[in-house]
Amino acid sequence: MIKVLLIGLWVCIATIGGVYVSAQMSKAPVATEAEAAVVTTIVRGNPVSLPVINNGTVQGYFLGRISLSVDSMKSKHVQLPMEVVLTDQLFSLLMGEKMIDLKSVGTFDPESFRTKIKDGINAKLGDTVVANVLIEQLDYMSKETIDTNTARRGSNPIPAQKIVEGVKVEAPAAAPAH
């Protein structure tokens, strides 16, 4: 009887010891930077109206709202507000490079536009801060349309010409105030 109890005690001690040693020897896997999930934050851009100037006169306006999905950790190190950097990039693309040909809006490539915004901002910041570009609104309204709508005094206005069907971006939740 004592033999059976001693064998049982020996088996319990050996089992507990084996579990303890294996738990101590195994280490948690170290996640590499590439494997670590990047936490992104949505930065909603301000609505902008950029004039289209041709031969020294205003022909119309681009109406837009573009938001960014940015790396949360990297964006904390950016000195300028992301909205300012985004607006600067939009001015460069729409007024400097004239990416949109108003005579043939159907040939506009929104993916190329998104890529140029993303690459341009990341180049200015010197890091891959912007993960994705979301076009909420990109329309064009000619000066003639604006004059006509003004003359109509708000009744039956002519809508702006849609360049891109935008996506709806929800505003980020407000941080709790303590």
SSE blueprint:
Layout: H1 2-25, E1 40-43, E2 48-54, E3 57-71, H2 72-75, H3 82-96, H4 110-125, E4 130-142, H5 143-152, E5 161-164
Antiparallel strand pairs: 1-3, 2-3, 3-4, 4-5
Helix pairs in contact: 3-4
Core attributes:
178 residues, alpha+beta, Tetrahydropterin Synthase, Chain A, five-stranded antiparallel sheet
Strand fraction band? 15-25%
Question: What is the name of the CATH architecture?
Answer: 2-Layer Sandwich
Overall geometry comes to rod-shaped
What is the CATH domain class? Alpha Beta
Class from helix and strand fractions: alpha+beta
> For the residues shown, what is the average pLDDT?
82
- Tally the helices: 5
Give the helices and strands as they follow along the chain: HEEEHHHEHE
Termini separation: 67 Å
Radius of gyration, in angstroms, nearest whole number:
29 Å
Assembly type of the shown chains?
single chain
The biggest sheet amounts to:
5 strands, antiparallel
Ranges with pLDDT <50 over ≥5 residues? Answer: none
- Enter the CATH topology name: Tetrahydropterin Synthase, Chain A
Domains, number: 1
The counted number of beta strands is 5
Secondary structure: helix percent:
25-40%
Keywords: Cell projection, Cilium, Flagellum
Protein name: Flagellar basal body-associated protein FliL
